[in-house]
Design brief:
Blueprint lengths: L1 E3 L6 E3 L5 E8 L5 E13 L2 E16 L3 E9 L7 E11 L7 E2 L13 E7 L2 E4 L3 E9 L6 E7 L4 E7 L5 E6 L1 E9 L2 E10 L3 E6 L8 E8 L2 E7 L12 E6 L2 E7 L4 E4 L5 E10 L8 E7 L6 E2 L4 E4 L7 E6 L3 E7 L4 E7 L2 E6 L6 E9 L3 E9 L1
Parallel strand pairs: 11-17, 25-32
Antiparallel strand pairs: 1-3, 2-10, 3-6, 4-5, 4-7, 7-8, 7-9, 9-10, 11-14, 12-13, 12-15, 15-16, 18-19, 19-22, 20-21, 20-23, 23-24, 26-27, 27-30, 28-29, 28-31, 31-32
């Protein structure tokens, strides 16, 4: 945890009131040692501007306990007007080592900042408020403690707490967006989306529920990812969903009929992504469920710029015509990744006989001789 020895929402003189910043943490390793330099640094827009204080030749040995590692004085006289993040940074005593941020690594990551936010104006500064109190009341017929799972807006689990029905409880939250998940035997899972920018109170009724779909997983091939899912069985008055909404990195990308249970994300950039899905009912929507996946670098693969088309698509009998404008290799697979067959093609039109396969969605992957590639989706009805 990173703490300043001044309260929030108070204004101080830069000239007369430098403040101490202490860093403490919990280490569960049997033994670990750090040798190098530690410092306080001012960041703005994610970029480190300058070191404002520090110590060299620091050696810290840590055993499995809560420890105070160091305390440094934050002197802000060299900073111009604006909002800053004051981070603790460290640099190991190694050749070509660089300064690195020291992050808080505690179970309650939704309450703990890794930095101290300050605002400088003229000859004064203030510590900015970044946490709020959220009063949560849970309504549920189950008379026992109910687990509350706290997720980031992208679905990452941050922590878990306990709530007893009809007993309001206060929780500190950092400003930001969260998703709360409540679950108990005999009741459906309930999600609540929170946008925290100040103190607030919420009430959660575990009977007001729209069941969410279940994501089997995301299969990645090159720069294409396929999300597969199923719906929960009908539950009471909510019955069966009417449609689905598909998201990529929290942005809506498609609306699909309930008969569809898969979706292809095409031309993805390398890196980590979040696949998202929401069920739509007559009177409301389910919470968004997510699944994280990675698209790896494809240094030798370039986009297919040219003609490549399938017709008819969908096909009622499994017979397709594939038209390409260059020599290439065709690989046909199921959405689960099983390769069904491969063949070499020359430029032109080619019949593709899939009459022996069941109705469904299939992937045609085309790879050119110069590293270009693309994936087409073929549907048999």
């Amino acid at each position: 945890a990173v703490e300043a020895n001044l309260p929030e929402d108070s204004v101080y003189s830069i000239k007369n009131s430098p403040f101490d910043v202490s860093y403490s943490g919990f280490e569960n390793h049997a033994m670990s040692v750090f040798k190098g330099s530690v410092a306080l640094a001012a960041f703005q827009g994610g970029e480190m501007l300058e070191i404002i204080s520090g110590e060299e030749n620091v050696e810290i040995a840590k055993r499995g306990t809560v420890i105070e590692i160091w305390t440094l004085k934050a002197d802000l006289k060299g900073l111009e007007d604006g909002d800053y993040e004051i981070w603790t940074v460290c640099k190991p005593d190694m050749e070509n080592a660089k300064w690195q941020k020291v992050y808080a690594n505690l179970p309650n990551r939704y309450t703990t900042d890794s930095y101290i936010p300050v605002r400088i104006k003229g000859d004064t500064y203030e510590l900015l408020k970044t946490t709020a109190v959220v009063n949560i009341t849970l309504h549920c017929a189950d008379e026992r403690y109910i687990p509350m799972y706290i997720h980031s807006s992208l679905g990452e689990l941050l922590s878990s707490e306990q709530l007893f029905p009809e007993s309001p409880k206060n929780f500190p939250f950092r400003y930001g967006s969260y998703q709360l998940r409540f679950w108990t035997i005999g009741f459906d899972t309930t999600y609540v989306n929170l946008n925290i920018s100040g103190d607030t109170a919420i009430e959660v009724d575990m009977q007001e529920i729209y069941p969410e779909p279940y994501i089997f997983g995301v299969r990645v091939r090159g720069n294409t990812a396929t999300m597969l899912w199923m719906t929960e069985p009908p539950q009471g008055e909510k019955a069966f969903p009417e449609s689905f909404i598909v998201y990529l990195d929290s942005v809506e990308v498609a609306k699909l009929p309930v008969s569809v249970t898969e979706y292809d994300y095409l031309n993805l950039k390398p890196g980590y992504h979040w696949a998202g899905l929401r069920s739509v009912y007559t009177t409301g929507q389910s919470p968004m469920v997510t699944s994280r996946f990675q698209v790896r670098e494809t240094a030798n693969e370039t986009p297919w710029n040219g003609v490549c088309r399938i017709s008819p698509n969908p096909s009622a009998d499994g017979y397709f015509t594939l038209e390409v404008d260059r020599d290439c290799r065709l690989q046909v697979s199921s959405v689960s990744g099983k390769v069904l067959f491969e063949r070499e093609l020359s430029a032109g039109s080619h019949p593709v006989d899939m009459s022996a396969y069941q109705a469904g969605v299939y992937l045609f992957r085309l790879s050119g001789k110069n590293g270009e590639s693309t994936v087409l989706k073929a549907v048999i009805r």
